[in-house]
Amino acid sequence: MISTEKVAILGSGSWGTALGTLLAHTFQQVTMIGLETDVAEDINTRHRNERYLPGLSLQNNIQASTELTSTLDASLILFVIPTSGMRKAVEALAAHPVPQDTVLMSCSKGIEHDTGTRMSEIIREHFPNNPLAVLSGPNHAEEVSLALTSCAVIGSKDEQLSADLQSIFSTPFFRSYTSDDMAGMELGGAIKNVFALAAGIASGLKLGDNAIAALVTRGLAEMTRLGTALGGQAETFMGLSGIGDLMVTCYSSHSRNNRVGKALGEGQQLDDIIANLGMVAEGVPNTKSIYRAARNAGVRTPLIDAVYSILYENRSASSVLKELLSLDMRKETD
Ligand SMILES: NC(=O)c1ccc[n+]([C@@H]2O[C@H](COP(=O)([O-])OP(=O)(O)OC[C@H]3O[C@@H](n4cnc5c(N)ncnc54)[C@H](O)[C@@H]3O)[C@@H](O)[C@H]2O)c1
Ligand SMILES: O=P(O)(O)OC[C@H](O)CO
């Protein structure tokens, strides 16, 4: 059993805050830890996080801090920060006396930029003995924070831990499932970011609904091909953390990655788009890491390569599209 006295959430951005509102139904105390002092002050004094989830009232049992020491008496610590900062954050936490029975859970989506390492693997490197899990699925913070119906998956190698977390992450509007395929879940959550960018680019180019349906379908084939080569199980990519997340990010305007892609398709410059977004779009750095992982694994990934050339080889979206449509003819299942 996990004590429901206190949960600590590393990352007081949009997803960390949405998870805070969800867990405030179950835990007596929710402590959010972020880098921004103004966000912590907003949460503590006004019960708001106007910067990341404007207009939302937070429950009174949610507090914020910028100090890692405020995680130490929590039974559960969630990591909900951009993947670019994960190793540093995990190292910083590991310098503190975190009890060995504290449950650690990654809720971030992406692989490490230079190494391709999954977030749970980074946590495991520094916390070899703690119970470890991941959370993923089609979950936009904007909707979970409004208590709109959502489903997610909890992944762990420890069945009892998954079951304990499943009951914690269950409310009348939030339903969770379990899986032991942490690799498949984390890879699906990382790879879908690239296709969400692609779907946004297609919208920006006004290609129409048929093109996006084709992209989601061929994207799923690519996600499964690459994800299984990197250690995930094929059926995981057919689930909530695979096709579920792929669909929500390819079709929803809440998706940060989709929004970045749309602006690119409309002809804006990547640096300007990122500067205006004010939140993390994991697909941007992850396109590079996933492209590299695909090359290292020798897996054919034409859509990922197309997004990579638009982002990192300065190619125009329309010329990349022309090239994609004139690739060698093949069977759908090849
Ligand atoms: N936003 C969503 O709907 C959503 C849903 C599911 C998963 N995710 C994933 O969750 C992760 C976080 O996304 P987000 O949208 O909340 O990002 P965000 O840009 O809204 O916020 C990021 C937060 O992380 C904090 N942060 C960065 N480095 C930190 C550190 N070392 N220690 C403590 N805090 C730190 C920042 O201060 C900021 O508050 C990403 O990997 C994203 O893909 C997001
Ligand atoms: O807004 P995005 O594109 O980072 O997607 C957020 C979540 O991953 C949706 O499940």
From TrEMBL:
It is found in: Cytoplasm. NADPH binds at S14, W15, Y52, K109, A141, R256, V280, E282. InterPro entries: 6-PGluconate_DH-like_C_sf (IPR008927), 6PGD_dom2 (IPR013328), G3P_DH_NAD-dep (IPR006168), G3P_DH_NAD-dep_C (IPR006109), G3P_DH_NAD-dep_N (IPR011128), NAD(P)-bd_dom_sf (IPR036291). One of its GO terms (cellular component) is cytosol. Substrate binds at K109, R256, N257. Belongs to the NAD-dependent glycerol-3-phosphate dehydrogenase family. Catalyzes the reduction of the glycolytic intermediate dihydroxyacetone phosphate (DHAP) to sn-glycerol 3-phosphate (G3P), the key precursor for phospholipid synthesis. This is Glycerol-3-phosphate dehydrogenase [NAD(P)+]. The lineage of its organism: Bacteria, Pseudomonadati, Verrucomicrobiota, Verrucomicrobiia, Verrucomicrobiales.
